[in-house]
Design a protein that fits this description.
single chain, globular
Length: about 150
């Protein structure tokens, strides 16, 4: 499993992790090295900014969980790992090899689908301020970052 998720030389593994890393909008929170432990424990991960602080501030900072970035990282990690598994099964069992463009399109579709589910949940199902704020904190930085990249392309 470790080989399939992180070390496989097939295009889909490397490409999907690069897409997830490049989508990550939080420059003050570094993208961690992905290994099987990170993938299996993604539900327990708490993302915190990497800033030099004094002792008292460091202790306080350790207790603060940044819910938006943490949730986005958990989504990117779990969805990317699942897609790697699905594409691996498609390649090995069905003997269908996808191009980089097809892999990128599948990853983008997966993340867009997750965003849509979150938007619908926040606006029509849950409809409370706390959850709506969590959804905005999760997706707004990434969407702003994506818009900036698209605006700078020729």
């Amino acid at each position: 499993m470790n080989h399939i998720m992180t070390h496989c030389r097939e295009n889909n593994t490397r490409l999907i992790w690069n897409l997830a890393k490049n989508f990550w909008p939080h420059r003050n929170i570094p993208w961690p090295n992905i290994d099987i432990g990170t993938i299996l424990g993604c539900g327990c991960i708490n993302m915190r900014p990497e800033r030099p602080r004094r002792d008292n501030q460091q202790r306080r900072e350790k207790r603060i969980t940044h819910q938006g970035p943490t949730r986005l990282f958990q989504i990117l990690l779990s969805e990317s790992a699942y897609l790697i598994w699905v594409l691996r099964c498609k390649r090995v069992i069905q003997e269908k090899v996808l191009t980089n463009r097809e892999i990128s399109a599948r990853w983008t579709h997966t993340i867009n689908k997750r965003l849509t589910i979150n938007k619908v949940s926040a606006s029509k199902i849950v409809r409370n301020e706390k959850f709506t704020k969590l959804v905005k904190d999760t997706w707004d930085p990434a969407l702003r970052n994506t818009q900036e990249i698209q605006a700078n392309q020729p």
